[in-house]
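Question thread 4412

I'm putting together a teaching handout and wanted feedback from people who do this every day. The idea is simple: show students a protein as raw sequence, then show them the structure tokens that encode its fold, then repeat with a second protein so they can compare. Below is the first pair exactly as I plan to print it.
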Amino acid sequence: MDLSFRHIRYFVAAAEAGSVTGAAALVGVSQSAVTEAIKSIEHQLGVPLLQRHPRGVSLTHEGHQFLRHAHAMIEALTAAGRTLSAAGRKLTGRLGLGVSPMVAGYFLADLLARFRRTFPGVEVAPSEDRRPFIEQLLINGELDVAILIVSEIEEKAALAHEVLARSQNRLWLPPNHRFLKRDRVTLFDICEEPLIVLSADDYGDALARIFRRAGLSPRVLFETGSVEAVRSMVATGAGIAIAPDLAYRPWSLEGDRLEVRAIADPLPALDVGVVWRRGLERMPAVEHFLQSCRQGQRPGHRAGEVTA
């Protein structure tokens, strides 16, 4: 069962207002949003919670029972929020955070914003560099924690990590490309076309290993560390590219469209995760940063794997 806090709030508002219209005004959303939320709860519980009539809504017997539990859940979450907020205001210190270029572009801003809202007393000092250098800074104690492409970590004996997001790799194509007629494209097929290679965060090296293991040699037209350059070149028909879903957007900066297709050959996923030094007692700021990262895991990505 997957009851969201938002749905529960909407139900309580409807029960207290006695109408969907009143509930929508209380929580500041549309009437249809309130209606759909209540229907979702009723569907998951398998019982009607509200009786609809021309003057509004009233609680059924099951609705009265659920309302008591809903109030208890809201009170518990509110209390937890107050406790964490108080703890956040008390926590101080400095957190040295390393990030690699692609991670900085797609993960850093959200993670920092979430952590700073909860722990404003902690000074976060982010620094961007290539993954091998960040690994050494972690081992030397010059950084406390890092967000990296963990599927490429080299110092596995010295560093532990937890996967936050797993991104599959797909083929990026310009509109009207012949491969769009297929559901899946093989690596052999890809070698027939000019390839634009994304080199950021060792992605190009990982891609080269994939082709070598398959005994294939792609026709590399251009290598770049810029995702936007890859997007623009593919969209304008210069070539095709293999890239992770986390970087996909269907439009280039110039407004040209891109399409994607699955790759038939099994490719390793790109794992983004939080990394820290093994055997080192983690200070409170690091522990809370790890919790904040887990709370911000992206929907639809398999995550939570830990190597300690």
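The second pair follows. I'd like the answer to focus on this one:
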Amino acid sequence: MGNEGPTGNGRRVALLGAAHIHIRDYLGVLRERPDAHLSAVYDPDDGRARRLAYDTGARAAADPGDALDGADLVLICSRTADHAGLIEAARPTGLPLYVEKPLGRDAPETRALAARLAGHPLATGFFLRLHPGVRRLRALLAGGALGALSGVHARYAHDGAVRGWFTGEQSWMLDRAQAGPGGFGDDGIHLMDLLPWLIPGAARLTTLGAAIGSNAVPETDDHGTALLTTDAGLPVTVSAGWATAPAGLRLTVTGATGTAVLDGGRLTLSPADGPARVEHDGPPPTPALALHAFLDAPHDGETGDAAARLVAAAELVDAAYLIAWPR
């Protein structure tokens, strides 16, 4: 039997759905953790479930209930269209859930699913807030290192559409009926979650304009930029998608007394009155951060704010699409 890692160690993780592009990131996390292992795999595509079970040493389950039997934690990494059914199967167990973002295919579906998960321990694949470089940038902004802010420019993107990532088993991500938004929404939702937390006093953002298009995948969008503002009038731009190189996160924050740039994992502060200095230098953010955080959480009944974050970010994404593509 194929086996990418040990089984039988620590908490048992049931995987419901394995179609998402980040599944390999998450399997890598489970391979390296001594305190958790993949116990069972269910996917609507039985062949996919059996292949993953063979690769990992987990059990291929006949249905969600079979996968959940004996589990301690639940990971939902399916097509977005399958979230509702899989959440409904897992919710009665009361087990902590990690559901890959987005929760729903649009903001109304996200709100409905979040309401069904009220009071349920929930985490999701929003990982940018967890990166130490991002946290250092937030601390600098909170401490006034740049003075009065004049602009925030955020980009999170890759060139997967150009490289052919969304073919074969990943082609569902080009189908709005299965995935919801395309490249701008898929990557941009990370920034829509990050920015209200990152910018001092910006608990609420408003979308003013957006341009969203496609270069490499005619079935859906693969790039876009939105203009948002804080209640105080600070301009914020969000660029995201699947057709931009080089890939990665880039945050530029400008202010009266300096500029800060986070490029991948390197944060540089350029004050007006002195030389630039590196405030953080390390690996760039990756999806694995979010699953590690979920596995590190105490799961003592605290439900956290994941549902509210998923709804707020989905509403900002929807607003951008409605401006760019009026119905």
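Top answer:
Good format. For the second protein you could add a caption like this: The domain at 11-124 is CATH 3.40.50.720 (Rossmann fold). The chain has two domains: 11-124, 128-285.
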